[in-house]
Amino acid sequence: MLNILLVFYNCLLLIFLVPILLAIVLAGKKNRQEFFYCIKERLSQWNIPQLDKTKKTVWIHCASLGEAKAVEPMIPHLQGNNIIVSTITKSAREYVAKIKGISYFALAPVDVYPFISSILKKIKPDVLILIETEFWPSMITCANKLGTKIITVNGRISKGAYPYYRLTKFFWKPFLTLIDYISVRNEHDYKRFVSLTDNKDKVGITGNIKYDRDFTSETITKGDLFLADNDLILTAGSTREGEEAILLKIFVQLKNIFTNLKLIIAPRHIARVNKISSLIKKNNLSFELFSKLTDKKKDVIIIDVFGKLQTIYSISDIVFIGGSMVNKGGQNPIEAAAYSKPIIFGKYMYNFENESASLKDNGAFEINTKEEFYETAIKLLNDKELRQETGKKALEVVKSQKGAIEKNIKIIKEYL
User: What are 150-197's pLDDT values in tens digits?
Assistant: First the structure.
């Protein structure tokens, strides 16, 4: 059954590969640059150096920048082994390149069986660590056949995605069964993985490794953005289509009351910068791109580069978590909380249900309408002590959840 599913999956992948490539080519310059960046690596042409054969080899596979940052605190604990890290996105690869102690890093090959097989035969990993939802059938099957132990760290299946996995359990269960151990973030994820694998013995709750990062090591000043010290900053992080239009209308209203208020928008997808620029112009607001900042007066700054949102949180007075006012499941609120910032999010936070529930119980604001957003923002902007108090509570949530790295490292070392 497994082999039939694997052949079906690979055939389907190859059939759709051509239209996917065509869509990427037509999607715009930024998307083309993203995909074709180090394209040889995506085609399994890894230039792997000679690994120390006296050491065990650990292959860590993660997707995007957020997962790459979460993986960083694990690396010092795995020294003494050959450590290989693969990523899906360009920004994640660029971040991993700066992490000390890694033997080799590259973009992950497309999950076609021959590509994955050739890489695994080259590096012969003792342990393959999959971060969060990186369940690639060819990768899992090839690793299992080679005798590599497979561990999922920070395993998660969101409330929104679970019905899809449940419906296609016949496909996913054979592959998930090949994973030796699945460590998950919370009780919700635990129940979903147990349901999909029908094996509670190989699933365990270890917490969220994203809480264990040293977030506040990255800071900037308002002056770095050519803003005044007394400017109030509302930051909207990882916004999705439909949210900027709402935010800008609210911002215009708030600006009539708080003349020193500035809005910083960090879209989830940088390719949407031009659309957001047009929306800002329609609202008769001045703006600049983060990559081209000057000392000119501006109402709005658009973050048009990767990896800067965390530092922007450090100077923010209020943070809105994007993807939560439209039905996208929300984005990670942990970074903003780690900087002791008051947090606002919409009702669609199911991708981070545990984190948003904990923050909501400790002072964060869930809003259901733009009117509620406006009223909440006024309350916070009028009261510095309230901002400090809710920010402090958010930081306490982050501190209380630390320790997942240590638990996961203990499990990994058992398999090594």
Answer: 999 999 998 889 999 999 999 999 999 999 999 999 999 999 999 999
Contact (CB, 8 A) for 149 and 178: no
- List 16's β-bridge partners, or say none: none
At a CB cut-off of 8 Å and minimum separation 6, what does 248 contact?
263, 279, 280, 283, 285, 300
pTM listed for this prediction: 0.86
Residue 244, both tokens: 């900027």
Q: CB-based burial of residue 394 (10 Å sphere; 0-12 exposed, 13-18 middle, 19+ buried)? A: buried
Taking the C-alpha atoms of residue 402 and residue 404, their distance in angstroms, rounded to an integer, is: 6
Contact 355/334 with Cβ under 8 angstroms? Answer: yes
Angle between helices 2-26 and 137-146 (to 10 degrees): 140
Task: State the Cα–Cα distance between residues 106 and 109, nearest whole angstrom.
Answer: 9
- The full 3-state SS of 228-242, as one line of letters, equals CCCCEEEEEEEECCC
Query: How, if at all, do strands 365-366 and 343-345 pair?
Result: parallel
Least Cα distance to 86 among 113, 58, 117 occurs for 58
Name the packing angle between helices 169-176 and 2-26 (round to 10°).
110
Cα distance between residue 73 and residue 99, in whole Å: 10
Q: What whole-number distance in Å separates Cα of residue 367 and Cα of residue 388?
A: 20
Which residues neighbour 199 within 8 Å (Cβ) at sequence distance 6 or greater? 177
Q: CA–CA separation, 208 vs 70, rounded Å?
A: 9
